[in-house]
Design goal:
Elements lengths: L6 H13 L11 E2 L5 E5 L7 H4 L7 H12 L20 E5 L12 H16 L6 E5 L1 H10 L14 E3 L5 E5 L4 H5 L5 H15 L3
This protein binds uracil.
Amino acid sequence: MNCTDCPRLAGFLAGVRGSRPDYHARPVPAFGDPRARLLIVGLAPGMHGANRTGRPFTGDYAGILLYETLHAFGFGSHPVSLAADDDLRLSDCRITNAVKCLPPANKPEPAEIKTCNPYLAGELKASPDVRVILALGLVAHKAVLMALGLRQSALVFGHGVRHPLPDGRVLIDSYHCSRYNTQTRRLTRADFHDVFRKIRDELGAG
Ligand code: URA
C-alpha cells in the first residue's frame, strides 16, 4: 500500500519515518487468511505497534488480548504476534483497520475515515468467503456500514450485538481491546471471549 491521500496523515508518517527510520511508518495492510470467513476490523495502527511492525495489532498492548483470544478460539497458530516476519499464521481469520495509517493521538478525523473507506470496501468485496465481520469499537462499526453502503442509523453499535446484514453476512460489535478499555475493565478477557464464542457459533467449529 502506498497511499498519501490524507495530507495530515501522510505528513505525520513522513515525520515518523524521519525520526524513526526503523519503523514501518506507512499504510498497514490487512493480515491473515485470504479465504477467511471472519474479518476483524480495528481502528487504526498504533504508533509503536502496527505502525512500527507493519502488521495490525502487532507490538502494542491492544494486540495482546486479541492474538491470545484468536489462538484460544482456533484462529491463530500462536498466542502472540511479535513481528511481521514471525511465523504466526491465522486460519479462517483476517485482520484489518478502518484507517490504514497511523493517526496523531490515535484519532483519525472523519474525513480521513471516509477517504480510507474505499480500501475497506475493496477488502470486503475481495473477500466473498467472509461470513462474520467483527467491529472493534464504534469507529470500526461505522466504517463497516459505510463500506457496505448502509445508512449509519440502520444499525446501532452495541457491545456483543449481532447485526444481520442485508447480504446475509453478520456484523458483530465489541468494545475495542485497547489498553484503556482493558485496564478500566470496560472490556474484560471474559467479555472478549464471550464475543468469540458467538463468532464460533456463527461459523461452526471451523
Ligand atoms: N493496532 C491496530 O492495528 N489497530 C487498532 O485498532 C489498534 C492497534
